[in-house]
User: Fold these one by one.
Assistant:
Number 1:
Amino acid sequence: MAHAFKATIVEVRAVAPDHVELLLESPELSQAIPGQFCHVLTPGMLRRPISFSRIDAQRHQVGLLFQVVGSGTAWLAQRAVGESLDVMGPLGRGYEPPVDGRPWLLVGGGVGIPPLFAALERWGAGRRQPIQVVLGARRGDYLIMQDDFRALGVTPVLTTDDGSLGQRGTVIPAVIEWMVRQPESEVMACGPTPMLAALASAVPASAGPVQLALEQRMGCGIGACLACVVPAQPVGPEGPRYRRVCTEGPVFRREELVF
Amino acid sequence: MDLSVHLPRGLTLKNPVMAASGTFGFGPEYAAYVDINRLGGVSVKGISPDPWRGNPPPRVWETPDGLLNSIGLQNPGMDAFLKDDIPFLKTVDTAVIANIIGHTVEEYQRVAERLTQEPRVDAFEVNISCPNIKEGGIQFGHDPEQAYRVTRAVRQVTDRPLMVKVSPNVAEPWVIAEAAVEAGADMISAINTLVGMAIDFKTRRPGLGGRTGGLSGPAIKPVAVRIVYELASRLSVPIIGMGGIQSAEDVLEFFMAGAAAVMVGTITFQHPERMLEIIEALPRVLTQHGFQSLQEAVGAALPR
Ligand SMILES: Cc1cc2nc3c(=O)[nH]c(=O)nc-3n(C[C@H](O)[C@H](O)[C@H](O)COP(=O)(O)OP(=O)(O)OC[C@H]3O[C@@H](n4cnc5c(N)ncnc54)[C@H](O)[C@@H]3O)c2cc1C
Ligand SMILES: Cc1cc2nc3c(=O)[nH]c(=O)nc-3n(C[C@H](O)[C@H](O)[C@H](O)COP(=O)(O)O)c2cc1C
Ligand code: FES
């Protein structure tokens, strides 16, 4: 029987201004698939959903990399090595592995970057097809995990809203440019909903699977409360059908969604 | 200590702690986390005759010690419930309460008529108190005449134990409850959520997609205890109490205010195993406060 259980913090890293990565030791969580998440107890009424930034099944470790945006993440950022977190997980539908032999494009925005790193780490090694990583953030010092990508031998294309690092603007021009060169690429992405919406229309129909990981405010995290819905197919006379991010996502195929 | 509870029309609970409607899905969702066989019962998510889409997201908003929700009673409809969830519910040994909803009296009656043919449905809970839908639902809970009509219509088509769930968003909830009892309700459950709102500073608009939402969780417990007390003081039918329960002490408080059994909702999101912990702790907490049995605690705080 699954449980909410304790996971011990083995390392705390300050990775950027107001961004912290916690490494947790947990045999259960380390079974996760990239794109899945865990539901973390904080002092508030509701647990906080956080994706895995890295998943090491051998060493029984996972990473949670988050930005401090409110009370729960502020509390998490103050945890110390040796303390433990009360977690539920791994939860939700993760990314499906990339198809062998297809070019592969990974696009991450802000705190959507971590799950893409987990995906590249899991499935990138030894692949011979072209791989492109495009990362975006509001400003240069929020472009997290660049060095992690480089350590895997991939040089990410960087974009920032304010132009303080890499190309100025969104990830979309870099995505379009890549898709012109590699029109059959498959795409994995995670980031703010407007970025995913723009991406969904920018990637041509010639592409392989387009998998997008979404965010929504959650209650239970396990499919019982219907809080975490997003508009999805099919669209009936009354509008789109609502589907649950916590169990039917966070990762959806582009054709399943309505933006 | 014997924790079993005997309610009207032969409804027997192995213990007084049930999962509250809308916080426990249709049963299978929490099966990996909670041994459902150990619960007193499960009130499933509100079921309508036809599927309901629910409200636009965001649908939840955290508040101090509470939660605002505007799910809007999204549900797949009674046929899907019978086909997809009853088979699972047949594998567990706990009371199944069908929470039912409709836009019209006729819709409430239709869903009751259909579900009463399913033997696994042990009882009905008629939700006339959900603040999250624009038509139907709430108006039945705000007008004693409407409450009477809905309850009567459901009573006409089922012999199963029947409880009517009342709203805290009226000045005199007992007037609604009395009308429901007069129309044939065997029990009253209380309370549903309190209407509230939160503003999103980023968008400068109400934070919930449905604009208003229902407040639940520990923040509402004193309101719930007060309403249970008032209902129990005035009515002779059993009261099923809920609102903000997070411990065995809270359950005892509801008993003393006059509840015969309780439901636990929002805290399950935080601690899925909490209902089981409460059931385990209950005999000790009763003894600790000088009660030899559950029965002895029921209504202990009511005026004599
Ligand atoms: C599947 C999933 C994976 C996520 N992965 C990450 C991650 O890897 N790194 C990261 O930094 N953030 C991630 N987020 C966002 C993260 O959940 C929120 O930033 C966090 O819940 C904010 O909590 P808070 O108490 O600090 O903020 P507050 O604003 O105080 O939170 C108030 C309430 O709103 C909810 N909330 C606020 N913002 C969000 C949001 N963007 N998404 C969902 N709920 C929100 C909170 O959970 C809480 O219930 C993820 C969200 C989802 C749904
Ligand atoms: C997310 C959510 C969904 C709910 N859905 C329903 C519902 O479908 N039908 C119903 O009668 N009550 C519903 N309720 C109300 C609960 O059953 C309960 O009356 C209320 O939440 C108070 O109990 P609590 O504070 O323990 O959660 C819902 C509550 C929540 C939080
Ligand atoms: S958070 Fe409860 S259904 Fe997704």
Number 2:
Amino acid sequence: MTSFPVEKIRADFPILKEKIRNKPLVYLDNAATCQKPLAVIDSISHLYMHEYANVHRGVHTLSIKATDRYEGAREKVKNFINAKSTKEIIFVKGTTEAINLIAQTFGKANISAGDEILITAMEHHSNIVPWQMLCEETGAILKVAPINLQGELIYDEFEKLISNKTKLISVVHMSNALGTVNPVKKIIVTAKVKNIPVLLDGAQAIPHMPIDVQDLDCDFYVFSGHKLYAPSGVGVLYGKQALLEAMPPYQGGGDMIRKVTFEDTEYNTLPYKFEAGTPSIADVVGLGAAIDYLTDIGMDNIANYEAELLDYATEKANKIKGLKIIGQAKEKGAILSFVLDKIHPHDIGTMLDSLGIAIRAGHHCAMPVMDFFEVPATARASFAMYNTKAEIDALMAGIEQLIEVFG
Amino acid sequence: MFDDLRDLYQEVIFDHNRNPRNYRVMENADREVEGFNPLCGDRLTLFLKMDGDVITDASFQGSGCAISTASVSLMTEIVKGKTETEAEALFKQFHEMTTGKEEDVDLEAIGKLAVLAGVREYPARVKCATLAWHTLDAALKNEENSISTE
Ligand SMILES: Cc1ncc(COP(=O)(O)O)c(C=O)c1O
């Protein structure tokens, strides 16, 4: 492999030149959201300066241009995750909205009292709460598969929880709190035997590895643009066409209809059936630009480079006395969640910030994971393709310094 | 190193974080209230012993960041011997100091608590400092036995 062009990539991200408290920014909060390359920022201003109008509505030139850009982005998403058809690509606000959409449409149509929904103990709140709400409404039961102390799904226990009543399995592809990458292919193969649909929360996985939904054979795959170098405000719900066809619509309004009278409404075809109202047009176009940018670099190259970063960070972190890594799964993405003996993550966060280093301190919207590891919170450094080993050195030096100050 | 942080992390704060005062469960407490900051997972239980409207003893247990630990530790020291009204007045002053304008703070009354004034510049950390006082407020008002900063 030729070496990864990290310096060239860094130059494409204007914000990386910012100074924070007079020090160069070291941005290691990519799992919360990542920064945007100029190509994405430019695509948005270009749209607003030259090609903006509402989509799907006008016969005028601008509306046609904007619609082309918007639908062009859908085509790009389709290719990026290798969906069969653009009909399977629904634009939503983000992962959270995608999961809620599935709960409120697929869920209400297919899940009733006594049925079971199976998730894991490492889910983000957005893959817990929508199901709890659905269970409350329908009388269905939420089952939670346990994890071990490495932060890995205990597969045998998971399998035991699959029953004749299981109507949906919803699993995080890569955990935001632990970095764990779940054995999703194995899960899907098992689920197929029993005809149980599988939803994958791809919010964290999508920027770190190539995703092929046909190869995975998942029924739903959801992710947010803002964690994929694209703007916030757009996300993707992929669903197999047959499932989406059979689902009732989510919100009612413009764009999602074919014909409306006061007596009756005929719904639009896919994907528009699920896209009521004016979408976040510029953000979708920005997502298309992000995908072009990433495709040029190559998701395989990104995955390899980030694996190198994670190995480097893990090795360095293990040398720091009093540091404990939370989440030591064999299969892991570029996330380093940790705690320090007697130093609270919030103090770590504030102290590193004063050195220009941005990390996340908190429960990472995964309170059950914190409870499991019996910590109130963790500090989390999460890496992106523009991070360097020098930045990891800065992080580790910062940690050593703050340990000294706390004495 | 960490020069910018000198206002926030004063030596007194490190000291109280290392050796929190009044860190114990109180048997036969008259008031026992749990405080919780869902944002950072900080959790503390505050115990009060009352004689009429005078706080005769205060102690706590729980885990939190250095700011919240120092804040509750200092608070348990300062409220001992104070009446409910005096403690509430301190809370008001403390609140003013951490969120309001500098001029409105009575430095004399605040005393040692002044070491926490630095959080004013760190909006993300204000709640760490005020959790203790919100918990005390709930204990004095004899509200439900669990409060949250959210
Ligand atoms: C694993 C996982 N799922 C879901 C989400 C929710 O994504 P969003 O807030 O973009 O809807 C996140 C974001 O933090 C996440 O990390």
